[in-house]
Design brief:
Elements lengths: L2 H52 L42
């Protein structure tokens, strides 16, 4: 083998190793970045859960049917004309 051929083979081998090293560094960087974001997300979740346990619940009405969706909308509507009341999806409900 001639010296020029050996030099060319050595350059190609070095080039392949350079690409492999670049790929490995990019992979390590991506994994570290993913770990940082995963840690930040987990930290935010833990903080939100801790805050939810410490803070009092807001004063909201009971989750019952009220307004036009009530079983009897006569008591929950302030409209005096019967034809203008909206019963929503409960209009055809069988009253028992």
């Amino acid at each position: 083998m001639s010296l020029g051929l050996l030099v060319e083979v050595a350059r190609r081998v070095v080039l392949v190793f350079d690409f492999a090293l670049l790929f490995a560094l990019a992979l390590v960087f991506a994994l570290v970045l993913a770990g940082v974001f995963a840690f930040a997300g987990a930290l935010a979740l833990v903080g939100d859960l801790a805050l939810a346990l410490v803070l009092p619940r807001p004063n909201r009405p009971r989750p019952a049917r009220c307004g036009a969706a009530a079983s009897s909308s006569r008591h929950s509507s302030s409209v005096s004309v019967l034809g203008s009341r909206s019963f929503g999806i409960f209009a055809f409900r069988a009253l028992s």
